[in-house]
Amino acid sequence: MTTTTSSSTSSPPPLLHTYKVPRHTPLNRIFAVVYTTAIFSLFVHHFINLLHSSSTTTFLLHFTLLFSDGILSFMWATTQAFRWRPIHRTVYTENLSQVISSRDYPKLDVFICTADPYKEPPMGVVNTALSVMAYDYPPDKISVYISDDGGSELTLFAFMEAAKFAAHWLPFCKVNNVEDRSPAVYFSSGHYTPTTQTEELKMMYDTMKMKVESVVERGSVADEYIKTDEQREAFNKWTAEFTRQNHPTVIQVLLENGKDTDITGLEMPNLVYVSRQKSKASHHHFKAGALNVLLRISATMTNAPVILTLDCDMYANDPSTPLQSLCFLADSKMSKYAYVQFPQRFHGINKNDIYGGENKRLYQINPVGMDGLAGTSYVGSGAFFRRRAFFGGPSSYVSAEKPELNPDYAADKVIHSEVVLKMAHSVASCEFENGSKWGHKIGFRYGSLVEDYFTGYQLNCEGWDSVFYHPDRAAFWGDTPISFDGSLSQNKRWSVGTLEVAFSKYTPIIFGTKARGILMGLAYSHYAFWGTWCIPITVYAFIPQLALLNGVSPFPKVSDPWFYLYVFLILGSYMQDCLDFMSMGGTFQRWWNDQRMWLVRGISSYLFASIDFLAESFGVSSFGFNITSKVVDDEQNKHYEQGVFEFGVASPLFVPLTMTSIISFVAFSVGVTRVILGNEKMEEILIQLVLSGFWMVNCWPVYEAMLLRSDRGRMSLKTTIISSILAFALYSVSCCLSFRI
Ligand SMILES: O=c1ccn([C@@H]2O[C@H](COP(=O)(O)OP(=O)(O)O[C@H]3O[C@H](CO)[C@@H](O)[C@H](O)[C@H]3O)[C@@H](O)[C@H]2O)c(=O)[nH]1
Ligand SMILES: [Mn+2]
């Protein structure tokens, strides 16, 4: 590896961070050239076939294959941006004290979003909050803001309890230098030595948990739990008219630095619960809207120059993460860097990651590639931002409507004071954003269901750079969907969101390229055009098989030199993909499942997302943010642990997959039978047989779920019947077409 340091002046300041470019990078570039030549040859082959088409149907068949390969090639080209100049960074927190003393550390505002107490259990959110409140960072500099889009008194109750528990938990962590600062993790880890103190604390935690869970189960806060007038006043806001979609702003300061102390008398961080005003009459812009409200409320209260955004399920796993981020943010040469993104990593993934929930490419491999260009994308959680980055480009400041919201405003009033609370309420209202720059020029950006991707992209386009830092000890651990349907739905939402950007005036291929050059344009296009993968994947899921059944072979025979071009293109891209995956610490089995999920998403998530996107473009429907459930029942969990797929729900997302598993099976069997009977030559249909066989191997869990299983996770009869009818219909259509060949 070649090492480059980013600090080099005459009397060198202490090193805060360095990066390395892997040695094999030039090989990637050579391979890119070779592969590009192969792709061009493939197009020559396709054009020759088009010119020689004997009928409209064969012309259409070859055109479809050409179009699909065109999309595959485009998507392949976009991945080259990630392979061009990947970099791996290291930080030196031990040198930080020579650059900045802890007294001068910047204040840190932490934003935690939650949106549904039933899909996102409040105890999970509480653990996330406690884990960051216990960071190794001056407590008087930390403020944690909870955004509750579920508008739930249950969540508020949980946080009232958490505030009390924090007074015990925070000093305990500091004194004992606890590693796991999420109490749920600590107490279930078995790593702690049971002493009277830990046992007492555990009891306290368990009591809080029981109380909160019983309140959630009951669906309301029982009177006996409301102890003070202040609490009564807070819960009184939940009147009969208060609904999730329609309610006034609730802001509750639960802990106040300078006033509240822990049991050892030390200061505590601020803890503020926020449920922004909701009204059916105004669009609330999902998570981006929630984050913008927190940006404004926090501006009026603490206005920290550094902001950490977290999803409710992403608890902090390393107390030193803020210091690691400071290694970049406190470096005066990095003032053009908008954020430091830590990877999203997930606990509880099964051994071979059957649903590809780790998303290694999205969260670990690609960011390393973008980091070496102009900056990594923002992935919604685990990013430390400069507040200034939300107000225009590094050299083109955009001021907010009110001076109190600007990053240079000195928030020095007591956060509990009437004047501050009044201001905070006013900036949390639905009307505040009407006709303003929020969501467009300022703050987190609106217009895409993947507000994270879109916001990071916009910031990069404005001229900000960004850092990806992947420490050995995970900075955060979160939940990834462990149900098949949940995982596919999540990917569907992401694809809808990225398609919204792909076909907007901000399309990365043009807008991004103009702003940050072709490589960044390609990298952002890769995500934007994710959804278009549904075209080639659907085509390859059905066309070669249907053609085989109809005795048509659109692919070269084994004796044809073009055959080897296909072999090279397919093996070349799969092998490179596998190497990328394994060089980032992945196993072969995980890679295998990951490639399977790519195929599966192609004919489910991406396909349905594209259809939804078209429907929305024609004004037929509109989409929402389906929150991923963080709760699973025992049987589901058992299946997942065993690596068994969960097909239990009758989801339309499973239909095309089931159709291709039926059609591939029939095509493969018919093809092999014909070869054995001597009606067909193996060398003529080899590519089609291999493609059908490949789908069959990948569809193994589908066959099991349809035919072999009897548990709750088997394929529902409805899905099997609908898929069989549709598969037969598709075959019939293909027969009608093939008569014309
Ligand atoms: O109207 C909403 C919807 C969601 N959320 C919060 O957004 C977060 C992410 O939602 P989740 O259902 O967990 O979605 P994921 O697909 O797991 O999240 C990924 O994708 C999202 C964009 O689609 C990003 O916002 C996330 O950071 C990223 O982890 C959660 O904390 C939610 O509480 C809100 O605050 N308001
Ligand atoms: Mn999530």
TrEMBL record:
GO CC aspect terms: Golgi membrane
TM regions (residue ranges): 30-48, 60-79, 524-543, 563-582, 603-627, 647-673, 685-703, 715-739
SUPFAM superfamilies, per the entry: Nucleotide-diphospho-sugar transferases
Key words of the record: Cell wall biogenesis/degradation, Glycosyltransferase, Golgi apparatus, Membrane, Transferase, Transmembrane, Transmembrane helix
Residues at which Mn(2+) binds: K287, D311
Example GO BP: cell wall organization
Subcellular location: Golgi apparatus membrane
Membrane topology of this protein: Multi-pass membrane protein
Single GO MF descriptor: cellulose synthase (UDP-forming) activity
Domain of life (superkingdom): Eukaryota
Main location: Golgi
Record-linked InterPro entries: Cellulose_synth, Nucleotide-diphossugar_trans
Active site: D149, D452
Binding, UDP-alpha-D-glucose: K119, E120, D149
Family: Belongs to the glycosyltransferase 2 family. Plant cellulose synthase-like G subfamily.
Function according to Swiss-Prot or TrEMBL: Thought to be a Golgi-localized beta-glycan synthase that polymerize the backbones of noncellulosic polysaccharides (hemicelluloses) of plant cell wall.
Protein name: Glycosyltransferase 2-like domain-containing protein
Origin species: Papaver somniferum
